[in-house]
Write a structure and sequence with these properties.
It comes from Polyodon spathula (North American paddlefish). This protein has 10 helices and 9 strands. Strands 1, 2, 3, 4, 5, 6, 7, 8 and 9 form a 9-stranded mixed beta sheet that branches. Helix 1 crosses helix 2. It is globular and about 55 Å long. The two termini are 14 Å apart.
């Protein structure tokens, strides 16, 4: 089944007043400190990859969320925040918003992919793992049913959330799936043609792993890209002008064992991204079955 996802799903709001995140290189932290508010305004333009809130993304059809989290420097306790260069909302607030949607839509199933953790010790991980179980409760799909996971099975068990946790602290938690079950190869390029080539190559290798698979249909700015488009920001300088090429590739895909599974994008509202991905599943109907 083809599923639509968002890249850096939480970045619709970032805190310009908070310190620069520990996910950034020391040189970025120094520059942001030197330029202060101006430096953070520029960082905001390049850190935000989404405009829609979690609920708005869910209502638009997004079902996979790319999540990066961190503690805040010099903050007491074990609070965890979303992060992409700058800090976002508390993770708990985001999870509560998602859970509210799921409680109102009992047949919706989502994927939460916690793939980067920064400045987090054992106590922080324990706090987050407990939070996930507290917020979602029986909605969490156990990882020991991997071979049985179909929509019908999930509906029968009333499971609505599959959480992937890319850290060893979750190894002994049966409610969290290891990151190895959802590879998300990253092209790391500003060139749309190179991105498409990378997506095709990695998709062709998917079958050997027998897992979920994320096709990251995103372009990644380099330092010189940011310098050239300093004021415009990620959306205006890089994303908008390359979306037609990326969407042409998306529309040409087929779901299924050897096809696409999860496709992620920046600024999912700029085009009918989620609708386009979801419509690919029409190809799985009996009259149009893929062999």
């Amino acid at each position: 089944v083809a599923c639509s996802g968002s890249h850096d799903s939480f970045s619709f709001w970032v805190d310009e007043k908070a310190p620069v995140g520990p996910d950034q290189a020391p040189v970025v932290k120094r520059l942001a400190g030197f330029f202060r508010s101006l430096g953070k305004k520029v960082m905001k333009k390049w850190s935000m990859t989404q405009n829609l809130t979690f609920r708005e993304q869910l209502e638009a059809g997004i079902r996979y969320f790319d999540l990066r989290v961190s503690s805040k420097p010099n903050e007491r306790g074990h609070e965890i925040y979303f992060i992409h260069g700058l800090f976002g909302h508390k993770v708990r607030d985001g999870l509560m918003e998602i859970n509210s949607f799921l409680s109102a839509h009992s047949k919706e199933v989502i994927f939460l992919d916690f793939n980067h953790h920064y400045a987090m010790g054992d106590a922080h991980h324990s706090y987050l793992l407990s939070m996930l179980q507290e917020v979602f409760g029986r909605k969490l799909c156990r990882r020991d049913c991997e071979e049985e996971v179909t929509l019908e099975y999930l509906w029968q068990k009333k499971y609505q959330v599959i959480v992937f946790y890319h850290h060893s602290s979750a190894e002994n938690c049966p409610l969290l799936w290891p990151g190895t079950k959802i590879p998300a190869p990253w092209a790391n390029t500003t060139d749309a043609c190179k991105l498409i080539q990378f997506l095709e190559t990695t998709l062709g290798e998917r079958a050997r792993y027998g897992t979920f698979h994320v096709s990251q249909a995103i372009l990644t700015p380099r330092v010189k890209t940011i310098v050239r488009g300093l004021i415009k920001g990620l959306r205006s300088y890089l994303v908008e002008r390359n979306l037609p090429t990326i969407m042409t590739w998306v529309k040409a895909q087929k779901p299924g064992v050897n096809g696409v599974n999860i496709i992620t994008s920046d600024f999912v509202e700029l085009v009918d991204f989620a609708t386009t991905v979801i419509k690919l599943n029409n190809l799985l109907l009996p009259a149009k079955a893929i062999t």
